[in-house]
Amino acid sequence: MIYCGVDWAETHHDVALVNDAGDLLAKRRIMDDAEGYQILMDLLADHGDSSDARIPVCIETSRGLLVALLNQGGRQVYAINPMAASRYRDRHGVSRKKSDPGDALVLANILRTDRHVHRSIPADTPQARAVTVLARAQQDALWNRQQMSNQIRSLLREFYPAALDAFATWQNPLCRPEAREILRVAPTPAKAAKLTKAQLCAALRRAGRVRGVEAEADRIKGVLRGAYVHQPPEIETAMGAQLLGLLRQLDAACIAADDLAAQAEDAFRIHPDSKVLLSFPGIGPQLGARILAEVGDDRTRFADARALKAYAGSAPITRASGKKHHVGRRMIKNDRLNHAGYLWAFAALTKSEGANAHYRARRERGDWHAAGLRHLFNRMIGQLYHCLQAGQLFEEHEAFPSSLRDAA
User: For residues 133 and 141, what is the distance between their CA atoms, to the nearest angstrom?
Assistant: First the structure.
């Protein structure tokens, strides 16, 4: 058996091949380009790599063109956490020496000695990987949008509190097109106090508002003309210019989030697993895309439902030593899937009587709100694992039989 380790970098990669006895068979530095990738493929082929017997590869990343190339043809590629690789390096010497060729050799020896305790990169279909790219990009765009919104809110508190009061009745106000349009028309409190009702109505209509335009314009006009403390005129003008610059960035973040959300939903709906996911209470197209992005469609990725629960961070973890025994929440987890699970469980409370009864029972037993939702998510993601494996849709009476009986 031959094992390959690749220490990757931005411009070049170091490759090492070892056999079962730990003998170094070959080492090579390749460039990060098509010619370098071909040299790597030829090197693997020279040592017995074929379509029937692929040489497994160990690398410290799960992304990039090199990983995509290595993952083709049924080859098993193992993505090792860099911190874990560092611990393996300490097994070979106490001097703490480090080099790129040495790291490649360490990665190859990880597969030689401990391949059975590591998992290869899941063999998801291209459809599922496309959903992963779009769903994660959409979530990143939402986080970026919220970050820009927080910056604008912090700036408005310093010189323009009237705007915050005027938009306080709206949900996520600064991300709404009406608020951004009004701030573009009047970027300073002095200009806002001079806005007429007609100008405010025109700004609201340009932003897409149709109902209650005049009443909302009257309300905003009264707030903007209220008594507030002002910065000196020169500073207020400078801060207004800063506000306009941040608004341009917020506009781009809002457009990106909306466009990526639409594309993620379209890619999710054409995936075969979308019917199963959408049958669960509390899961819509966007949330379903996020869950599918993290779970994937490789049915062999998780050995059982417990493995998926541990990956999602919903299963508790036990720490026992001597007389000490502690059961607490899991800290090492897939944060994106865990966040999606919190939203899923919260939405299911109003969509499923059984889920609501299960949550109420946990609260009566002393769980806090977050712990109750985590316990509900732990149960429902186990049901999702079963439904995906069997190709079945969610059935309320089978998922929560006792909870529905108690509720009745």
Answer: 12
**The two structure tokens encoding residue 49:** 């790599």
pTM more than 0.90? no
Backbone angles phi, psi at 8, to 5 degrees: -95, 155
Count the neighbouring beta carbons within 10 Å of the beta carbon of residue 33: 12
CA distance 333 to 316: 11
What's the gap between Cα 188 and its chain centre?
37
Q: How crowded is residue 160: how many other Cβ atoms within 10 Å of its Cβ?
A: 26
Give which of 297, 320, 287, 318 is closest to 391, Cα–Cα: 297
Q: Phi, psi at residue 320, to the nearest 5°?
A: -130, 130
Look at strands 324-328 and 12-18 and give their pairing: unpaired
CA 20, 23, 26 angle in degrees (round to 5)? 110
- Using an 8 Å Cβ cutoff, are 311 and 334 in contact? yes
Q: Provide the residue-wise pLDDT of the chain in tens; the chain has 408 residues.
A: 899 999 999 899 999 999 999 899 999 999 999 999 999 999 999 998 888 889 999 999 988 899 999 988 888 999 998 888 888 888 777 777 888 899 999 999 999 999 998 989 998 999 999 999 999 999 999 999 999 999 999 999 999 999 999 999 999 999 999 999 999 999 999 999 999 999 999 999 999 999 999 999 999 999 999 999 889 999 999 999 999 999 999 999 999 999 999 999 999 999 999 999 999 999 999 999 999 999 999 999 999 999 999 999 999 888 888 888 888 888 889 999 999 999 999 999 999 999 999 999 999 999 999 999 999 999 999 999 999 999 999 999 888 887 555 555
Name residues whose C-beta falls within 8 Å of residue 296's C-beta, 6 or more positions apart in sequence.
Answer: 122, 124, 128, 132
